[in-house]
TrEMBL record, chain B:
PANTHER family: ABC TRANSPORTER I FAMILY MEMBER 6, CHLOROPLASTIC. NCBIfam families: sufC. InterPro entries: AAA+_ATPase, ABC_transporter-like_ATP-bd, FeS-cluster_ATPase_SufC, P-loop_NTPase. The keyword ATP-binding applies. The gene is sufC. Residues 2-246 form the ABC transporter domain. The keyword rRNA-binding does not apply. Gene3D superfamilies: P-loop containing nucleotide triphosphate hydrolases (3.40.50.300). This is Fe-S cluster assembly ATPase SufC.
Length: 482, 250
């Protein structure tokens, strides 16, 4: 027992299987594979969408056909064959008019396995949940409580039908259909997602939460989230993701749009633990996500993300600081292990005067993984007194992984102040021995060091999420140092 | 309590310890002195179970149990404590959090539940007073941005919290000014009892004025070449190490 070799550790790591790797056999209705106008019309029809929505999708599809997959990111993978994916899959037992009590017991059992029993959530936690399995939002809890405050929280499909004026006004205003390859694809085929509207001056009394899960084999998940915080309102939104383990790669291309009107504030937190692939690098989710928020005058948007899953991550939650005095924040922990690849970061676009942004990025790489931070801080010519502070820290474990930082800065206004700090460190044998000597074993020592390294970001998460995130960090990295 | 027999140890095939014999009984204070590079810190690391060192011959017995096969944390659980010469930094982990983890991991190894928060708090309060440590200090990241003196004081604070059976102080006096030295030595003296033992590794006499040893050993070229009472330390202070080297090489 005196030696704890790299091999011992590696062996142990192998036994840490993906916790959420089960498949629930629910009867699903899945469209034939492939993508063409007919499929898009069929999706739209299935969802009983109005004509303008169908046209909007088709427009996106036309644009997408002319686009090519981006290759500038520091990730290498076999490109998905977009014609061999099924673009719509829904558990057939779902009827949007049903109440929670009517939900398919198999589905509820699945949530239990995930540790997010809706029933429990409803009673125990002050969290309203919208759950998206494959492509359809199954049940939305707390609707009534929220309704009393005028808050709308429902699946985007419902919102298209019930609040077309809001959806029509804001959908695609922050992430246009043609924004990028994956956003265009999402715009064409998105099947569900969440919609949230907070009326003027309302402070949302609870954390709103969506739980995504990819269940059906050979499907892509393309959810679309739209959050609108009207003037002077506040909302905190949580998003968690899991997927069963499968050998083939599953595609996930989501779009999230946030709109913070004058004096509004949106906090958006994500814990992503999609299946990362096996320890040999087989399977796993391709996570190609476009997230962006727009800040009007005095508004504030905070993105916090803990990214531990997915085989390939391509994700840059960004803020367009359009209004004067608006504030954008990005707090990120990205963990990669084995053969995972992550290229993630943010864009802070300063357009208004006295706009401020903060970027804190913590990358942790282990195994043979590659972890890149990519960020853009852009200050427009009219953005007097714009301020940015960026800090990018990388932590390496072992000798076979990589950490990369790609910070871009473009300032067109002389009064801009931009600071960038970066560090790279390695968990040292000396640190481990120090902990060991105090009676802390190596596994626990790594968890302690990683938690310390990530603390500034973990502190930004809402309480219940922070606990889950800490556990996830431990699971993702157990036994990854020799 | 501690019995070291003919201990040989090497790192990357380079022999550092070449036959150490040492017996430390409960209630005793031993000082290990010697010139730079004589193997003092290696001896401390080997007793604590640092993996890079390979024990090629001999053994280490703690309460008659051979601890050579035990991992560092298991030795710690049995009451071995090392005050590091160069304590490492762990950013983002507060002194309090670190201590809480260390104490509870040790308790877990003994089959005990976590220490209740109020007991922990009481203990922290008592021990930090003993070492004249400001409460604010405890919320800072472990050793990050600490002065040399703060680091050493923190080591002894940890010793106080963990209440070890055998404490090894590796050059705890380096980097300490006179006042800090007094506080640290005072702390160690208060923690001393008939049930525990202390090994003080140092270059200089000055720490031994405060922590008075029962035995002084001189380590040179991987061996203990001279042992004596506390007066040996005074002799070394006055005459340096050269006469010892000459004696050995003669």
């Amino acid at each position: 027992m005196s030696k704890y070799t790299e091999d011992d550790l590696r062996e142990e790591l192998k036994t840490k299987e993906y916790e959420y790797g089960f498949y629930t056999d629910i009867e699903s209705e899945t469209f034939p594979i492939g993508l063409n106008e007919d499929i898009i019309r069929a999706i739209s029809k299935k969802k009983e969408e109005p004509e303008w929505m169908t046209e909007w999708r088709l427009e996106a599809f036309k644009a997408w056909k002319e686009m090519t997959e981006p290759e500038w990111a520091n990730v290498h993978y076999q490109k998905p064959d977009f014609q061999s994916i099924a673009y719509y899959s829904a558990p057939v037992a779902v009827d949007p008019n049903k109440t929670l009590d009517d939900v398919d017991p198999d589905l509820l059992a699945m949530y239990k396995k995930l540790g997010i029993s809706v029933d429990e959530q409803k009673k125990m936690n002050n969290i309203a949940m919208d759950i998206v399995v494959d492509s359809v939002s199954v049940a939305t809890t707390f609707k009534k409580t929220l309704g009393e405050k005028g808050i709308i929280f429902m699946s985007i499909s419902e919102a298209i039908k019930e609040h077309p004026e809001l959806v029509k006004k804001y959908l695609g205003t922050v992430v246009p259909q043609k924004d990028n390859f994956y956003a265009a694809l999402n715009s064409a085929v998105f099947s569900d997602g969440s919609f949230c509207y907070i009326p003027k001056g309302v402070r949302c009394p609870m954390e709103l939460s969506t739980y995504f899960r990819i269940n059906q084999a050979g499907t892509g998940q393309f959810e679309r989230t739209l959050v609108i915080a009207d003037e002077g309102s506040y909302v905190s939104y949580l998003e968690g993701c899991t997927a069963p383990s499968r050998d083939e790669n599953q595609l996930h291309a989501a779009v999230v749009e946030l709109i913070a009107l004058d004096d509004a504030e949106i906090k958006y937190s994500t814990v992503q633990n999609w299946f990362p692939g096996t320890s040999e690098g087989k399977g796993g989710v391709y996570n190609f996500v476009t997230k962006r928020g727009l800040c009007e005058k005095n508004a504030k948007i905070s993105w916090t993300q803990v990214e531990t899953g997915s085989a390939v991550t391509w994700k840059y939650p960004s803020c367009v600081l359009k209004g004067d005095n608006s504030v954008g924040e990005f707090y990120s922990i990205a963990v990669t292990n084995n053969y995972q690849q992550a290229d993630t970061g943010t864009k802070m676009i300063h357009l208004g005067k006295n706009t401020k942004s903060t970027i804190i990025s913590k990358g942790i790489s282990a195994g043979k993984s590659q972890n890149s931070y990519r960020g853009l801080v852009q200050v427009g010519s009219r953005a007097d007194n714009a301020r940015n502070f960026s800090q990018c820290d990388s932590l390496l474990m072992g000798n076979e992984c990589g950490a990369h930082t790609f910070p871009y800065i473009e300032a067109k206004n002389k009064s801009a102040m931009i600071e960038h700090e970066a560090t790279t460190s390695k968990i040292g044998e000396d640190q481990i021995f120090y902990c060991n000597q105090r009676g802390i074993d190596t596994e626990k020592a790594i968890a302690l060091i990683v938690n310390g390294f990530s603390k500034e970001v973990l502190n930004k998460l809402p309480m219940e999420f922070a606990v889950e995130a800490q556990k996830l960090l431990e699971i993702s990295l157990e036994g990854s140092v020799g | 309590m501690l019995k070291i027999n003919n201990l040989h140890a090497s790192i990357e095939d380079k022999a550092i310890l070449k036959g150490i014999n040492l017996e430390v009984k409960a209630g005793e204070v031993h000082a290990i002195m010697g010139p730079n590079g004589s193997g003092k810190s290696t001896l401390a690391s080997v007793i604590a179970g640092k993996e890079e060192y390979e024990v090629t011959e001999g053994n280490i017995l703690l309460d008659n149990e051979d601890i050579e096969e035990l991992a560092a944390e298991e030795r710690a659980h049995k009451g071995v404590f090392l005050s590091f010469q160069y304590p490492v930094e762990i950013p983002g982990v507060s002194v309090t959090n670190f201590m809480k983890t260390a104490i509870n991991e040790t308790r877990k190894a003994k089959g005990l539940d976590d220490m209740p928060a109020k007991d922990m708090l009481k203990m922290i309060r008592e021990k930090s007073e003993l070492l004249e440590i400001d409460r604010k200090f405890l919320s800072r990241s472990l050793n990050e941005g600490f002065s040399g003196g703060e680091k050493k004081r923190n080591e002894i604070f940890q010793m106080a919290m963990l209440e070890p059976k055998l404490a090894i102080l590796d050059e705890t006096d380096s980097g300490l000014d006179i006042d800090a030295l007094r506080i640290v030595a005072n702390g160690v003296n208060k923690l001393k009892s008939k049930d525990n033992a202390v090994i003080v590794i140092t270059h200089y006499q000055r720490l031994l004025d405060h922590i008075v040893p029962d035995f002084v050993h001189v380590l040179y070229n991987g061996k203990i070449v001279k042992s004596g009472g506390k007066e040996l330390a005074h002799e070394l202070e006055a005459k340096g190490y050269d006469w010892i080297k000459e004696e050995v090489n003669a």
